[in-house]
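Message: Study each token:
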Amino acid sequence: MTASGDKRDENIHPLPKETQIMTTEQMTGAQALVRALENVGVDTVFGIPGGAILPAYDPLFDSAKLRHILVRHEQGAGHAAQGYAMVTGKVGVCMATSGPGATNLVTAISDAYMDSVPIVAITGQVASSLIGTDGFQEADIAGITMPITKHNFLVTKAADIGRTIAEAFHIAGTGRPGPVLVDIAKDALQATVDFEWPVALQLPGYRPVTRPHSKQVREAARLIVQAKRPVLYVGGGVLKANASAELKVLAELTGAPVVATLMAKGALPDSHPLHMGMPGMHGGVGAVGALQRSDLLITLGARFDDRVTGKLDGFAPDAKIVHADIDPAEISKNRHADVPIVGDAREVIADLIVAVQNEHEAGHKGDYTDWWRQLDAWRDTYPLGYDVPDDGSLSPQYVIERIGKLAGPEAYYVAGVGQHQMWTAQFIKYERPGAFLNSGGAGTMGYAVPAAMGAKVGAPDTAVWAIDGDGCFQMTNQELATCAIEGIPVKIAVINNGNLGMVRQWQTLFYNERYSNTNLHAAKRIPDFVKLAEAYGCVGLRCEKAEDVDDVIAKAMEINDAPVVIDFIVHKDAMVWPMVAAGTTNDDIKIARDMAPEWENGD
């Protein structure tokens, strides 16, 4: 999805001009809500009814255009809306009632805010006369979510519902995408209103800048051709802008190496020779080394997150910074930008291509021969790998690697948070943009199952694999019931090591193997994930041996009329390597316990 242009009239209509035939009809505020959702193009809503939002559920029952999916927990509704948005490019929608219903959405809203996912969360609120009185199931959800939404609205008048919905969708899906909350008082839903459509948006202060400044782009191009060790540091903003094709052109034009963050997997195919891999705390040595030794970072839609930079004052110490982002608040927030560029990533990269071509035509072209000699040495000397357990137990990395091989690059892969998330990023090859969904900024356990559900609704003809940990899985696996009842045949691989794996890894490395409250006692099979899956109306499978992995995956792939859960029993002490310990610089990366790369001997 590409952000809209920056030169706009304040009274923007959300529909094309040819469809802007004004209609007026008398209806309730609840009917106006449903009609507005239909008019902005919504086809799916994930939610749970309750007292304050109940008036909206009555006309929703009659809608021929809106599919409502009844989830089992509001957090599941929010993550499902995220998954749907990420695979369709549309704004996802979730709905909940007031008080605890609304507060249960907070985790998913925060997750969407951190990862710039466009969703609109619609919540019911107590009647306007009760607001501020601590009425039954009252919570100031607008106040609660103010720091974690792009914008939010409290609607107390039925006449404002249609325009507010149009504004919410416009804000969520343009500029830097993000979550918008619309909280509607119950009496506004029940009142009668003359509903008009289309509506004029009243957003005089909202003008996202998408076109970059040409002078800044020319300066960036000049630095690129002068640099000896440039790196294209690519973040999730490139995917949000649908700029993968432009990125490939820019990379091949310049010949500069590309590192793509966790949120940018697939922005450049993993198999592309210019791709150095993922940087950061669990990134590859080549990618981390490229950033650390660079003399110019061309940062596109990335935000210098601490999981990428490590200790900030030791990050890429010799590099000048070109920083392009659609959100001006990100520029120089963590690292000073020598050349700041505000704009949509697709627009920025397209202009950079032209500017670099002009430099080449003027006889200015970078020579990165020595740089690539060093990069190739790191890449060849320190490839990603893993140890096979000595006791014959199952390696989690092998399981995930085989899922990627057998399901192939066309599938969607949705990870929870922890070790399995990092292994899913490391050992599955991503050849297309958007194939990997995960909770990057917030690190939300419980993300995978509902997000995979939403992704499958958005892409029903594409295989969707959720790769989850046994800890994460137990936070939101109630959505298996939703998947079974609604006919959403996701495939879920539970990487079951019987522990909160990433926390256990840190306890092993930094807390003298004092495993405080990380053992989930899965050896007793409490719960038994196969039986649990079957109880929820899904197919349950189990695998404990390497020789059975391919057959079990193949069996799961043959089942397309029901959700499938595979309980992979894996070694409890497998670790994610490489690793940059928190609070250290990227130069201190370890390729295994007490083993570090020899940076200066790589060439």
Summary: Confidence is low (pLDDT under 50) at residues 1-19. Residues 313 and 580 are 15 Å apart (CA to CA). The longest strand covers residues 119-125.
